[in-house]
Amino acid sequence: MTHHLKKEKNYRYIEVGEGTPIIVLHGLMGGLSNFSSVLDFFSANNYKVIIPELPIYTMSLLKTNVKSFAKYLHEFIDFKGFKEVILLGNSLGGHIGLYHTKHYPDKVKALVITGSSGLYESAMGGGYTKRSDYEVIKKKAQEVFYDPAIATKEIVDEVYETVNDRNKLIKTLAIAKSAIRHNMAKDLPKMYTPTCIIWGKNDSVTPPEVAQEFNDLLPDSDLFWIDKCGHAAMMEHPDEFNQILIGWLQQKGF
């Protein structure tokens, strides 16, 4: 991603475009570049797209949890002076968006989740016992996608570096435990924020039944499927993802 990373106060973020703010929330192993297509498309279509670098590995261990990340997001929204935002989150980012929306519903115009945790967490943080084995890590990275070729060497290298950094691995496991603690099944029926659920039909990390459960539990949600697609729809089928999302936003008047 060639966009300039702004550094203000204790925040690092990319911001492009003008219009209704869409704040994009990346996942545990997901870099900001995973959303380059979303950034380019929506910033060209009357939205201001902001991708903050979440403090996943820079918070103290005690604060390495979904609740603290949601509070960080709330403070970032206040810092930017936004009255109301659209939140878009993948994987852990979706969970942070959901938790934030539960506590600060007046700040969230709409929520978009794809491959989100929050109901099903067994895939988070596990399987790194052979973390020094590059081929094992490569296979795990490829399993995130329907098309394993999406897991480029750059992506695999980044995951490999993360899980072989002891500090980052400890925090990854802390986040996994936090995600289980912050299961949102009981909260979702009380959350009335309009929610767009976009899910890969072949997601093996958060399987399709998870998307169906989100849709069943949320009072005002719409579920869209993308075929031949894994856990990161915005990367694997960027054009289809963008068209689904802009169609939904326009239909809702956002």
Describe the overall structure.
- The structure is a single chain.
- With 254 residues, the protein is an alpha/beta fold.
- The chain has one domain: Rossmann fold (3-Layer(aba) Sandwich), CATH 3.40.50.1820.
- It is built from 9 helices and 8 strands.
- The chain has an 8-stranded mixed β-sheet with strand order 1-2-4-3-5-6-7-8, with helices on both faces.
- Helix 1 (36-43) links the parallel strand 3 and strand 4 (47-52).
- Helix 2 packs across helix 3.
- It is globular, with a radius of gyration of 17 Å.
- The two termini are 27 Å apart.
- The mean pLDDT is 91.
Unreliable stretches covering 5 or more consecutive residues: none
* SS-based class: alpha/beta
Helix and strand pattern: EEEHEHEHEHHHEHEHH
- Which strand-content bin applies to the residues? 15-25%
With helices defined by DSSP (H or I, 4 residues minimum), what is the helix count?
Answer: 9
Considering DSSP H and I runs of 4 or more, what fraction of the residues is helical?
25-40%
Number of strands: 8
Determine the CATH superfamily.
Alpha/Beta hydrolase fold, catalytic domain
* CATH first level: Alpha Beta
